[in-house]
Amino acid sequence: MNFAINSSIGCILFVLFLVSCDTNLEPTKPVKWTKENSAKLGETLLFEQEIDIKLYLKRRPDWNIQETGTGLRYWIYEEGQGETPLEGQTVSIDLEVRLLDDSLCYKSEANDPYEFVVDKSDIESGIQEGIKYLNKGAKAKLIFPSHLGHGLVGDLDKIPPLQALVVDIHLKDIR
């Protein structure tokens, strides 16, 4: 009896499979990708990120945001003293990296600041640019689109692809 039921179910599934197959499908034509296609896609992605960043900032009207030509936005909420860092100098920073939905990606440890050489390291270009607006002791918020962060692939860990970042940064030292 089980064999008869299993055979019947098998036959019904086979008939459904045949009926559901569309034999009139034409092969898909390959899309010829051009520089123009890439530029349009880049513009669309950047436009969408700009909307997301503007909505994020709209919820924070008390932030005195400045914007640069690259798309970096920054707010120095605590001034420091002295000179700003120059190319080739080593800086020591505390930072907290978040996505626009405020989820925490990374945070430096309290007694273990992150160090890098300005314009000569692989840290995000948004941080490289933003650090130059700060002097020793300054604290700031940096908000930047993915092309100044981890771009199309993310960091393959905690930062997804195509994500704008919010970095809370404290410039502790310049050497």
Short description:
The protein is an alpha+beta fold. The chain is built from three helices and seven strands.
In helices, the fraction of residues equals 25-40%
Total number of β-strand segments? 7
Uncertain parts: 1-5
Proportion of residues in β-strands: 15-25%
CATH topology: Chitinase A, domain 3
What class would the helix/strand composition place it in? Answer: alpha+beta
Order of helical and strand elements: HHEEEEEHEE
CA(first)-CA(last) distance: 85 Å
How confident is the prediction overall: mean pLDDT?
89
CATH class: Alpha Beta
Q: Which terms would index this structure?
A:
single chain, disordered N terminus, 24% strand, alpha+beta, elongated, 7-stranded antiparallel sheet, 175 residues, 7 strands, 3 helices
Topology:
Layout: H1 2-20, H2 35-58, E1 66-67, E2 73-78, E3 90-99, E4 104-107, E5 114-117, H3 125-131, E6 139-144, E7 165-174
Question: How would you characterize the overall build of this protein?
Answer:
With 175 residues, the chain is of the alpha+beta class. The chain has a single domain (35-174), classed as Chitinase A, domain 3, CATH 3.10.50.40. It has three helices and seven strands; from the N terminus they run ααβββββαββ. It has helices at 2-20, 35-58, 125-131; strands spanning 66-67, 73-78, 90-99, 104-107, 114-117, 139-144, 165-174. Strands 1, 2, 3, 4, 5, 6 and 7 form a seven-stranded antiparallel sheet that branches. Strand 3 and strand 4 (104-107) form a beta hairpin.
